[in-house]
Write a structure and sequence with these properties.
alpha/beta, four-stranded parallel beta sheet, single chain, globular, 14 strands
């Protein structure tokens, strides 16, 4: 019997988390977005077009792949991979951008802005803008522009303008800051496609709903393959969209353990990490109340991760609620562990995972030690690692002492 529910109130509060903490200028736009999304949810034509695009353009449904060599090597549970890396553009992000571009079209807003860290959300946004004929501006921290040069080129090839952000840490937080400033200034003709389950209401709920196709498919596929639900579901967590999309359809299934894996960077005790749910405390950032990395004065602390997509000092408010209510467990993995898992997955299953996803696989190694061959686990393979190969190559060469540190 499903007993756990997660329903936001009218202003998007998940218990004490969520809500709207934004300039007054944005309230009409958020109200309009809430109304249009509520109407779209009731509209069979919207659902039909969304599902048609997911099938014929994105390439859904994605496979649930049995990782036979990984299973044999770990010697614990059966391991299945939910293959979001096989989506068009190479990651789960396109599920959300398809839904939001349809809403932007309904609202008559021809200009789209977005933030991006690893570049996958930027590429997915640029892709749907190209398909539907929208102007596209993507904000990206200068540090991430250097780390993810391939995705920068892809966005430009798709017709997007990429605006590097030089303030702060020059990463995802700062890119989001600049996108929010743009939206305040250009709210009449611009829709902000937020890439994760963060930001003011209705974004956390809306992005979750668009991404929940991941878990819906995985839940049904698990029953088809094994005759029952998995014992555990594992996903990486930065802002948390792939994890929430995977977790949400399972939240009422008490036998399924939900595990989110954050970036511990150089170690949680080092101060150079992005383990928000592990080491953060409640506060407000980018329009929502959630767990944040903060200093002793309550100022947002610098996040660090080898993975640009996890390099964020906050997390989606629904994840914060899951943590406090005990429905999901959140753990963390270091840069070194993630880099090791990156190569391990490639050698073992012939799949190069995104560095973000590699964090989930690093924890899988630990988890397998406490599970049995009678059990099975599903890992959300949220994206492919083509974008990370150059950065990993340079990082490994630096660690091996064959190139100087930058």
């Amino acid at each position: 019997m499903a007993t756990f529910t997660s329903v936001a109130d009218s202003l998007g509060h998940f218990g004490s988390f969520g809500g709207r903490y934004v300039p007054e200028t944005l309230i009409p736009a958020l109200d309009e977005l809430s109304e249009r999304y509520a109407a779209a949810r009731r509209d069979p034509e919207f659902h039909a077009e969304f599902e048609s695009l997911l099938r014929d353009y994105v390439g859904r449904e994605t496979p649930l792949t049995f990782a036979d060599k990984m299973t044999a090597e770990l010697g614990g549970p059966k391991v299945y991979l939910k293959r979001e890396d096989l989506c068009h553009t190479g990651a789960h992000k396109i599920n959300n951008t398809i839904g939001q571009i349809l809403l932007a079209r309904r609202m008559g807003k021809p200009r789209i802005i977005a933030e991006t860290g690893a570049g996958q959300h930027g590429v997915a946004t640029a892709t749907v803008c190209a398909k539907f004929g929208f102007q596209c501006v993507v904000y990206m921290g200068e540090e991430d522009v250097k780390r993810q040069s391939l995705n920068v080129f892809r966005m430009k090839l798709l017709g997007a303008e990429v605006r590097p952000v030089s303030s702060g840490t020059k990463t995802l937080k700062d890119a989001t800051n600049e996108a929010m400033r743009d939206w305040v200034t250009n709210v009449r003709d611009t829709h902000y496609i937020i890439g994760s389950v963060v930001g003011p209401h209705p974004f956390p709920t809306m992005v979750r709903d668009f991404q929940s196709v991941i878990g819906q498919e995985a839940r049904r596929q698990s029953i088809e393959r094994e005759g029952r639900l998995p014992d555990a579901v594992v996903a990486c967590v930065g802002g948390g969209s792939n994890a929430m999309g995977m977790f949400y359809p399972f939240i009422g299934d008490e036998t399924v353990k939900l595990i989110g894996v954050e970036a511990a960077g150089e170690g949680v005790t080092s101060g150079r990490h992005a383990a928000t749910l592990t080491a953060g405390r409640p506060g407000v950032l980018h329009g929502t109340q959630t767990y944040l990395l903060q200093d002793q004065h309550g100022q947002i602390a610098e996040a660090h991760s080898v993975s640009a997509g996890l390099d964020y000092p906050g997390v989606g408010p629904e994840h914060a609620s899951f943590k406090d209510r005990g429905r999901a467990e959140y753990v963390s993995v270091t840069d070194a562990e993630a880099l090791d898992a990156f190569g391990w997955v490639a050698r073992t299953e012939g799949i190069i995972p995104a560095l973000e996803t590699a964090h989930a696989f690093a924890h899988l190694k630990r988890l397998a030690k406490v599970m049995t061959p009678e059990q099975f686990v599903v890992v959300c393979l949220s994206g492919r690692g083509d974008k990370d190969v150059d950065a990993v190559m340079k990082r490994l060469a630096m660690l091996e002492g064959t190139t100087p540190a930058p």
